Amino acid sequence: MSPALHGPMSKAQYLRSELASEFRRECVGGFWYGLHGESGEEDGTSRAHAGIAGNILFRLHGVSRSLGYEVFISQFKLHLPASNCFFYPDVAVYAHQSAEEYYGTEPCFLAEIISERSREMDHFIKYPAYTSILSLQIYLIAEQTERRVYVYSREDGEWVLAEYVGHGEIPLPCLNTAITLAEIYDGVL
Questions:
Q1: How far is 48 from 34, CA to CA, in rounded Å?
Q2: Cβ-contact 37, 43 below 8 angstroms
Q3: Strand 70-73 relative to strand 91-94: parallel, antiparallel, unpaired?
Q4: Residue 6 DSSP class
Q5: What angle do CA 109, 57, 121 make, to 5 degrees?
Q6: Contact 26, 88 (CB under 8 A)
Q7: Gyration radius of the chain over CA positions
Q8: pLDDT (tens digit per residue) in 29-47
């Protein structure tokens, strides 16, 4: 299901209004759409979604920090300046500290936990936006109803898709480590 788009608005208008908003909103090309909680609806984050995001964050936090990187969960925005887009990735690792207080711009790793509501956005809107980021090396999409992960990785300037089902180890070269499906789904599936 595609979200309703509203707008357009400038970067400054979006950032100013986002601080006062009762719900989180992503922005694509100046047009915003509400995430969970828009119009009083229940927050759509499931226990599985939160568990998977927490597991990825837990696994990557220490290694990211040891490299001088910052790692964030879904409350910190990603800004793509060239396309005036703002997203809230479920997990993001930034290789360089952002000078901005409310968003980062140069991630090396991004993860989204997919749901029926977000499937279209994560594969068809966020994929081209995320893979346009020069610093990004890995875009990981994790299912929350089965042990299945889609990993887009940059190899020799091209994006390559690998699918992991059930078990496996996913290399994360930008962090000099790997993450397993057992770690991603620990206590969830």
A1: 21
A2: yes
A3: antiparallel
A4: B
A5: 55
A6: yes
A7: 16
A8: 878 777 754 433 445 689 9
Asked if 93 and 70 count as a contact pair (C-beta separation under 8 A), the reply is yes
Structure confidence by residue, pLDDT tens digits, 67-101: 999 999 988 999 998 888 999 999 999 987 777 89
* Cβ neighbours around 163 below 10 Å, total: 10
State what percent of residues in the chain have pLDDT above 70: 92
Structure tokens at 87: 């997203």
Q: How many CB atoms lie within 10 A of CB 94?
A: 22
* Nearest Cα to Cα of residue 60 among 94, 33, 14: 94
Nearest to 115 by CA among 91, 143, 141: 143
- Total Cβ atoms within 10 A of residue 187: 10
Cα–chain center distance at 123? 12
Tokens at residue 73, please? 């969960």
